[in-house]
Amino acid sequence: MLRRNCLLLFLCFLFEQSSCAPFQSRPGQEWPHSQTGPLAAGRNGGSRGFQRVKRGWVWNQFFVLEEYMGSDPQYVGKLHTDLDKGDSAVKYTLSGDGAGTIFTIDQITGDIHALRSLDREVKPYYTLRAQAVDIETNRPLEPESEFVIKVQDINDNEPKFLEGPYTASVPEMSPVGTYVMKVTATDADDPTYGNSARVVYSILHGQPYFSVDPKTGVIRTALPNMDREMKELYQVLIQAKDMGGQLGGLAGTTTINITLSDVNDNPPRFSKSIFHLRVPESSAVGSAVGRIKAHDLDIGKNAEVEYNIVPGDGGAMFDITTNEHNQEGIIMLKKPLDYETKKAYTFKVEASNAHLDPRFHNFGPFKDTATVKINVLDVDEPPVFSKPSYAMDVYEDTPQGTIIGAVTAQDLDAGNSPVSDLDSFFDIDPVRGTISTNELLDRESIAQHNISVVATKVNNPVLTSKVAVTVHVLDINEFPPELAMPYETFVCESAKVGQVIQVISARDQDLPQAGQKFSFKSPQEGVKTKNFTIRDFGNNTAGVMTLRGGFKRRSQEIYHLPVVIEDGGLQTLSSTGTLTIRVCGCDTDGSLLTCSAEAIFLPVGLSTGALIAILVCIVILLVIVVLYVGVRRQKKKETLMTSKEDIRDNVIHYDDEGGGEEDTHAFDMGTLRNPKVIKENMFRRDVKPELGLCPRRPVASQNSADISNFISLRLQEHEGDTSAPPYDSLATYAYEGEGSVAESLSSIESVKGETEEDYDYLNEWGPRFKTLAGIFGERSETDHDLDFKLWWKEF
């Protein structure tokens, strides 16, 4: 309250210096020249029109303090006009923002008061309108005037950090003044009035490591060489205070968590200078022997370590790799160990950083070295053969018990070890390791034996070693050669002297080391034979050569020629084979025709197959001729009709195909007969009869002379017949009429008498009647007239 009262006194002092013009009128000012009215006239003797007067009051704006806490309404200002003579004849009115609710005016005095406390941060000013009117007539004495009541700001809002708390990071070992981040506080007070919104930053906690700029809020490092390995996280408390940081100003704070990020400023270091490891001699190549580790205080990629074995004693036996997860150095076995050969190894391992920072090279070398000593442990190991594999040769049929070779196994921990084999064909001395045959071997059955020899440790039978032994069975000359195949040799009757008629070769089941070599000859070497001889070509083949010509199948068809075959082994073996030579007939170019003796008596130029084909063709022709004759005879019998009862005209035509000329059941044949023999009430046969059909009218008498009447009657009867077929048909009636001079030309009544007629005139009608003339010329029956009519219909 004391601070606010002091502020009020200060404001009043300012207003007094400016004569408080807005709060009261000044004499001598006139109304605007554009304003005239009856109020002025009334005050000057009752003139009928307004006269021009000067405005009697002037104001621009009023001020009201925010956050007023007094019990009485806060006085804002006073409105007054020169027209107000103090006789209560003028009434003041107020309208606009908050009129009547926030602000009120005394209608008589013009005093304006604020009814409640105001907040500038909610609404900084209010626009209102004031007017002076006649209290009796309520007529305006001057135009309505607009003014502003501005809420005067006081320092009632502290600065606030809207985005706090903050998080920042800065590399370790950064120099002084390295930028960290910037913070900003916001003050809701009026920045244009006084120092209520003027903010000053300061650091309350975090010194001497960091500093803040009081005006901008930029935070920087204040201490050099801050080491992350010593302290990684810093919590800094920043204050923002208004009123320029003076006493009485409001303040707000925020927290900033600053982390030092890592840089590679520390080399790797081994925890000790010597590492002792032990490894069994039986360890497999590639297995892990042990682990060592160099510690790096940095983190992330700055702590990645590379390990290397320094060239020197023992370094060739081992290798080292880095475990990416924990940065350990894993020592791997590179070559097999042997306790009996070397019992210990010593070498150095170097650890260095993979990613170096050139800014810290002056800190010293970023690597460290340690010594590794590995002791090899003796292990009870199986025997070891002197060779990884063995190969031995033995001739087939070697006597049982013959020694073919020996294997040697040695226990490196003690001495020689007993051995045993795993094959029934051989036997082995368990002490000396000599291998001997256990039975006779046959190269033609098994040419190679693969056996396994096992060496067992004497004091520990569980430990064994195995080696492969290959025994090659060598061939001996035990099989004589023979002809390579059963040859089918022939000689042409036209063969000449010295002609090679067959090339032969040989085979041998033996397998000489230098390859096979055969020789061929006749059994009587040096003695001339009459027919054939053997000629050796020297390349494991030979030829059968003729010694004469003029071979005849009639005199001798088959010749037998013995052949002696010898191999080229150390112990020469031979055999005699026999070639069967047939005498055959050949073509002029030497091609084989036939070797059968029966073929001599066959016609020249015709083979057996050709003769068989000719005979088959003759038989087929005979069968065809017999069938043709039989068919002709059958047709001749069935050409003419033999029934005399069916002699009639049949000239009904319709679109439905029937069974032929002799099919007389599809229609009523009675319509074609003589009217004298036509029965009454005959129905059609080609349609299904229906009940209630009207009977046909009687046929006109033969004695009727009016043929047209007869035809008309029949036509009407046919058109009215409901049983008629649905297709077009031609009906021919047998009534001819009477009184013709030429008499009847119809053959309808020809059935009453049978007379022979000569049909030779048909031959004169041309080729189209030739068949008909032949049919009637051969027949002796008397029904030629019927046959002619049937043919005529077909024609």
UniProtKB/TrEMBL annotation:
Which GO molecular-function terms appear in the entry? beta-catenin binding; cadherin binding; calcium ion binding
Chain ranges passing through the membrane: 600-631
Q: Which PROSITE patterns match?
A: CADHERIN_1, CADHERIN_2
Q: List, for all copies, the residue spans of the domain called Cadherin.
A: 81-161, 162-270, 271-385, 386-483, 483-601
Q: Which GO terms describe its cellular component?
A: adherens junction; catenin complex
Which GO terms of type biological process are on file?
A: adherens junction organization; calcium-dependent cell-cell adhesion via plasma membrane cell adhesion molecules; cell migration; cell morphogenesis; cell-cell adhesion mediated by cadherin; cell-cell junction assembly; homophilic cell adhesion via plasma membrane adhesion molecules; morphogenesis of an epithelium
Say yes or no: keyword Calcium present.
yes
Major subcellular location class:
other
Q: Which domain of life is it from?
A: Eukaryota
Q: Which UniProt keywords apply?
A: Calcium, Cell adhesion, Cell junction, Cell membrane, Glycoprotein, Membrane, Metal-binding, Repeat, Signal, Transmembrane, Transmembrane helix
Localization of this protein = Cell junction, Adherens junction; Cell membrane
Residues annotated as region Disordered? 26-47
The signal peptide stretch is 1-20
Looking at the keywords, is Ribosomal protein present?
no
- Give the InterPro entries listed for this entry: Cadherin (IPR039808), Cadherin-like_dom (IPR002126), Cadherin-like_sf (IPR015919), Cadherin_CS (IPR020894), Cadherin_Y-type_LIR (IPR000233), Catenin-bd_sf (IPR027397)
Membrane topology type:
Single-pass type I membrane protein
Q: Which PANTHER family does the record cross-reference, listed alphabetically?
A: CADHERIN-12 (PTHR24027:SF96), CADHERIN-23 (PTHR24027)
Instruction: Relate the protein's function as given in its record.
Output: Cadherins are calcium-dependent cell adhesion proteins.
Q: What is this protein called?
A: Cadherin-12
Q: Which organism is it from?
A: Cyprinus carpio
